[in-house]
Amino acid sequence: MWYLVITIVTFIVGAIVSAISEIKKKDLSFWVYVCGFIGGITSMLLWNNDAPTSMDVYQGKTTLEITYRDGVPVDSIVVFKNKEK
Question: Which terminus of the chain has fewer Cβ atoms in its 10 Å neighbourhood, N or C?
Answer without folding.
Answer: N
